[in-house]
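Exercise: predict the fold of this chain.
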Amino acid sequence: MEEKRWDLSPIYPGVDSKEFNDDLAKLKELLSAFKAKLEGKSADIAELVEMDNEMSDISETLGSYAYCNVSVNTTDKAAVNALNKVEELSMDSAVCSTMFCKYVADHKADVDAYCKANPEYRFVFDEIIDESKHQMPKELEELAADLMRSGSDAFERLQETISSSACAELDGEKKTVIQLRALATNPDREIRRKAYEAELKVWKEHEIAFCYALNAIKGTSLSLEKRRNWASPIDRSIAGARISRKTLDALIGTLEKNLPMFRSYLKTKAKLLGLEKCAFYDLFAPVGKVSMNYTFDQAREFVVKQYGAFNPAMGRFAANAFENNWIDPFPRSGKTGGAYDIYMPKIKESRVFANFDGTYDGVSTFAHELGHAWHDHVVSVKPAFLRSYPMTLAETASIFSEFIVFKGAVAEATDEQKVAIIEQFVQGACQVCVDILCRFYFEREVFEKRRDGELMPDEMSEIMIDCQKKTYGDGLDENLLHPYMWAVKGHYYSTGFSFYNYPYAFGQLFGLGLYNRATKEKSDRPFYEKYNELLSLTGQLPAEEVAATAGIDITDPAFWQEGMDIIAAYVKQLEELAEKG
């Protein structure tokens, strides 16, 4: 791959530069001054909001910049040290956040007066006041934050460390479990099977460490949620997601209702692979007789073209991102895997991290991450206080943008190419709907059982297999499931974010539902204007009210089914293509 990298110089000259260190010092001073004003108990709300906005912008830019440098070169000691310096200030930030919550709750009249003059802040302040009801005394919150670093966070790092370094032998060659899992996309089924079996041996070898780590994290969550007056971890998760229980029930109910459709897809995939039934290790197997390959320039042109066809401004935005080197596109030694978008408030620009491999999936990744970047661009005119949106809405713009590009790819593809493109789309939807539902079931069950005591590794695996049977059903060979997915997925190991699963399904179906409205709505006003308005409000309103701006009721299962119907149409098209052979 050609040597092409992103340009971080508009943010800071370097991680050890005067500018970077000056902002670190400034952030420390602001945190200290903010704390002093709160302790004085006579601070002006407007002044506190202004200070909070400034602290958030500096902190986010520092952290994002340092993280970018680390992720493209994990051996860069200076970058690692810079990131550590930013993270060290997170303790002070957590203390200030706790104090600010209490201050707001104690000065409601001042807050009401401020919100009367600035109504756009009303929901966020109400959210802060509600959060104050779920706080322990200041000293206990400080202790909890301090202990988290040596407690739950340490167990989370243990899972990450073992998962990234544990090895097994495959055909005489030692491979990490990450490398073994990557073979799930290999076209040779025998290679997939052997990699799966070797992977299971790795998890079995380390199951005690993973099990005790997960017990500790879930036990800590239960203790803290109880102390903070939450009825359960799911209630706290719902509040953080800015949705209601009715919305969650409508979403989960829709996922459950459509499981037969996904099982039908898995049977079609088995037919395309020449199998009687798919095993767990066949979920990511490639199908189709042809592969689609793109150069970087072709990928860029295709994404820009499809974005522009929906909204000319989005097309120009994507072109600017490519032209001004916002994107670090290719894998190289020392660079981590995966992809992400990250925002830099100081310069009001994003940076996109990717590992482009020339496949259609790589093109789709550009579309997805630039969708996030577009979302950040739309809210960039807002102060930090009104810019932070929940994970449920975070995936909306990315899924929407990815689908725009997917539609363009299908329109230009031959029948043989369509098999691969459509199957990859449905494969992803299956993961985001079926596997996410499985993860939701698993976490819910583990929390229930953890209340009564610690679980053993075999219990964790039994719950996981049971959840996989409930969701994948006869779509997979029940004798070839994955009992250790509870050890694989790092999302389970977060104390700060329980149920790190259903927001993905929310984003998938909400994005598709929005697209469905975009194609059906008859109006003199372009849909993208309503779409941008919706994105602009994601940081300052609950999800139900954000959706309502586009005439959508997310408490109604009928809306979620609109997104499912789009997936179902492609499952049917895939079945028809499979019949053609």
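Check your answer against the key: Strands lie at 167-170, 173-176, 327-328, 340-344, 349-353.
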